[in-house]
Amino acid sequence: MNKKNIWIFSSVIDNFGDAGVAYRIAREISLNKEFKIFLFIDDIITLAKLENSLSLQHQKQIRHNIIIIQWNSSCFSGLATPDIILETFGCFSEKPLNNQKLESIPQINIEYLSAEDWTLNYHLKPSLLGTQKKFFYFLGFNENSGGLFIENNYTQEEMEFKKHDTNILNFVQKYKIPFNLKRKKIFIFGYESNIWHQWTNIWRQLNINYELWIAEKKVLNSMRENRIHTVSLPFVNQTDFDKLLWLSDIAIVRGEDSFIRAQLAGIPFFWHIYPQKNQLHLKKLSAFWCQVTPYYENEIFFHHQRLSLALNEGIVLSDKECYTSWNILLQYQENWLKNTQSWRDFLLSQSTAYEKLTQFIKKQLELPL
């Protein structure tokens, strides 16, 4: 079979999110036997933390049937021209390709995740600038958007992992994670914030039998004094990240990829969104929670939203208000869990971004659908 060459480009700007999404896209699309996937990334060191089998000494290497190449001025030499190019998060605006051979190749720009209505008007629409054929692909939460990157075997992998205790033990032993079956777990992967001091004080006052799984050392340092059992998590491969969430009872996450994975895990979650100028992040956050509202009970949603806004510096809660909201959520955690699982079921019922993107690529390449 004459496979179509798909080039995916990623420029690492903010931690691991950009590389993580690009690598997730590449891994799933590579399963399509009609495509040959090339991933060009300008920071192999960051990607190697998500895929620890990568070598830092090689400019070109293969993992999961993906040809991974260090993106630099000489990286295109000797490569066959691609059939289509995927630009992740507008990376060409800061790092243009500047290659005449690629100017006639159709491009699809994978945009950042958003629940805002305006994105639906631009999804799959062509760019009006320049002569190159270029389309915008907006990820989102309903059927009219570009969908979410959810692996076809996601639920099967989750069920298989949870099915046998030996799978769990092998996982925690692999990463040397102390594991206590009797304690519930709050997974925390957030930004530095004064909120952690307040929240850990509240959790201590509530005398919860939880341990905090901390995936960010700067956050961990602000929690040590509060006498709640904490576990400093090691960096895990991207393919193992879901397992941390499957073993958790509540998740507080940052970054779009982690945000999506927390929703898929079906556990109560908060999104510690990256702050933007003029509080634009709060508008983005509000648009998301507006879509989730119908899946939550009113009282649970009210207290969750209060804490979510406080986490993201939209409001300031007194210790008493914070205590009340956490007390309600933990008291009715089973209901909270049912709400988040209903939202997860809705997400899993839709076509995935892989399916939609693959169909759009085939359409551009005039392949049978």
Question: What's the structural blueprint in terms of helices and strands?
Answer:
Blueprint: E1 4-10, H1 17-29, E2 35-41, H2 44-50, E3 60-63, E4 66-70, E5 84-88, E6 107-111, H3 118-122, E7 134-138, H4 154-163, H5 165-174, E8 184-189, H6 195-205, E9 210-214, H7 217-221, E10 230-232, H8 238-246, E11 250-253, H9 256-265, E12 269-271, H10 280-292, H11 298-311, H12 319-331, H13 333-348, H14 353-364
Parallel strand pairs: 1-2, 1-5, 2-4, 5-6, 6-7, 8-9, 8-11, 9-10, 11-12
Antiparallel strand pairs: 3-4
Helix pairs in contact: 6-12, 11-12
What do these coordinates show?
This protein has 369 residues and is of the alpha/beta class. The protein has two domains: 4-148 and 351-364, Rossmann fold (3-Layer(aba) Sandwich); 154-348, 3-Layer(aba) Sandwich (Rossmann fold), CATH 3.40.50. It has 14 helices and twelve strands. Helix 9 (256-265) links the parallel strand 11 (250-253) and strand 12.
Any key phrases for this structure?
369 residues, Rossmann fold, seven-stranded mixed β-sheet, single chain, five-stranded parallel β-sheet, 14 helices, alpha/beta
